[in-house]
Write a structure and sequence with these properties.
single chain, about 200 residues, Rossmann fold, seven-stranded mixed β-sheet, about 20% strand
């Protein structure tokens, strides 16, 4: 990510009924990232988001959690990019990924939605632009590829999964820190090679 103001967006669904679900791991990661820098979230009605501003290195980082529900995440993202006067390439989106095993993280410079409703909404709101970084956090898959995942992604981690999930939230927050301080390429080289942690 280039120097200067940056936008980090964690995807999830608002409301207590969705707290702690697999689909909300993007929220959990950016909450940990902000907390590591003593940042606190405040509701910003104009963006339909909770927003924290932190300074982990040179420049300011704005961290956002859209409160629009996952399939309308692009509404918040487009409004915040316009307000900050930055290009999509200066943004990183944290998103759950059922195609990665639980505990695996993958950073990418750009790409399509991969069937993820939040990423699809953002790409549509940006007029088809896919040129923004994303940190994909593995939540694992149940059933065969192509099967309906709604119940899985909206479910909570099992007792045996919780420790791995907590550890990967911490590691993903560290990867964000590396992105904003040392750049996306360094973070990709460092974190994309790591094997997922295993439950003890």
């Amino acid at each position: 990510m280039p120097a200067g103001t940056k936008l980090v967006v964690g995807l999830g669904n608002p409301g207590p009924e969705y707290a702690g679900t697999r689909h909300n791991i993007g929220f959990a990661v950016v909450e940990q990232f902000a907390a590591n820098h003593t940042g606190s979230f405040k509701r910003k009605w104009r963006f339909a988001a909770e927003v924290a501003e932190i300074a982990p290195g040179d420049g300011k980082v704005v961290v956002a959690k859209p409160q629009t529900y996952m399939n309308r995440s692009g509404v918040t993202v487009a409004a915040m990019l316009s307000w900050l006067k930055i290009a999509p390439a200066e943004m990183l989106v944290v998103v759950d990924d059922a195609d990665l095993p639980l505990g695996q993280v993958r950073l990418r410079e750009s790409g399509g939605s991969g069937g993820h409703n939040g990423l699809r909404s953002i790409i549509e709101a940006l007029g088809g632009c896919e040129e923004f970084a994303r940190l994909r956090v593995g939540i694992g898959r149940v059933g065969e590829v192509g099967a309906d995942l709604t119940g899985h992604v909206l479910g909570r981690f099992s007792a045996s999964e919780r420790e791995v999930a907590a550890r990967i939230v911490g590691e993903a927050a560290e990867a964000l820190d590396c992105c904003v301080k040392e750049g996306l390429t360094t973070a990709m080289n460092r974190y994309n090679r790591k094997a997922p942690p295993k439950a003890d």
